[in-house]
Amino acid sequence: MTQEPHVAAVVTDTSPDELTSAISAPSQPNNAKKGGRRRAFKIGAALLDQALFAGSNFVVNWLILLWLPKEEAGAVVVAFTWFLLLQTFYEALTVSPMSYYGAGKYSGEFRRYLAYIFFGHAGLALLVVIGLGAGAFLVGNGAQPGDSSAMLSAALAGAALASPFLLIRGLIRQPFYILSIPQWSAIGGAIYLITNILVTFLLYVTGNLTPFTALAGMGAAALITSIVQIGVLRPEFRKRKPESMVNSREVIADHWRQGKWSLSARGLSWVSTNSGYLLLPLVVGFSGSAALRASMNLVMPIFQANSALISLLTPTFVRIYNKEGKAGLNRRVWKISRMAALLTGVYFLFLTVFGETIIHLLYAGKYDADISVLFMMGIGILPVITTTSRILDSALVAMGRVKNSFQSKIIPTILTVVLDVLFVAAFGTIGIILESLITAFVTQAGLQMFYRRYDKNKAAKKSESSSESTPAEALTS
Length: 477
What we know:
The protein is built from 18 helices and no strands. The chain has 477 residues and is an all-alpha fold.
């Protein structure tokens, strides 16, 4: 992809709000065509970035599941699932608040604000390394080479080594969306995809692909990518100016205020999304987790795109809500939801017809015994439900209703834990899919309720305020 002229100068000297205005609202009529081309370029870059990000995860997951034995691949899946739990907490305190404050309060000093985010990354990443390292030690203590505990211990150690770089890989994509220059996130996605494939391939052909090196290799690819992208962003690490509103106490307070509810909500989301990968080894062994991941790999690009979609939508929704209110936000949410339902619906039909054949071809028949038409239908319908739910969730966050986002996930999470145990015991791997469908519907219903309730609460408060006004005030108004 070609680079736009003077991108570095734009990142250095222009605030996100100014960038957004320049991209979305050309002030002179004779700049309409140029503005249209710029908007098309930004949209294309954002879509390319989502495709590269989802594609890299899909390809590397596929290679690991194809080249490693089932049990070892399952150990990688379980270790990475534990990493995702810690990443969930990390992103709740970094990425989620950055979407809100980076596009708003700190937009005028974004590069200085970004420097504080990176300092926070260093501290939180250290905690993640300690947590995964301790898990690797405890699981591997006394384990014999070749048994399941030894495989899981090695995978957790690889995740611990890779975690600081995988975390910053996820963190560093968000600033490019806030700055409205997604082409640089796409460039990073291309670097990560190519590097990750090369590292995994070299490990395989040299006979060194193991649960440990599979995850450590992902970290190496993330490190190379992050070095390039940090060089583009150039966060301002210099001493704070006295007149600056950005300081450590203010940033920590803001991120905790916004992140504490996101922390809980994301934790509940992790349970509802990933608990099956941890439960299956207790019933059918690590091979069950590998089979579930192999089939879910067909929809993981959509789930990854959902996460990236939130990165793009949240700051956009914040600006729309601030300028146009709830009515403007409603229009945008409805329009995007219709498009998402159409695209995911077509993919559902595709998986229903061709899913089994694709699984057979991708994994050389390795997981054929674990797949059925009903299984693929259940997997295919999940993105249809969850994508619209994520759009509603992003709209709630944009309105500052992070608490409601958390509350909408409480009942589905409780259902997940209960139904996973019951359904896996009764139906095996397909029980995870049945549970996921039920809880996805419940989650969407809760989000719709909170989103609509906001209008009713606002109207009730307005009515109450009007009834308390004096006759003179009523005449004046």
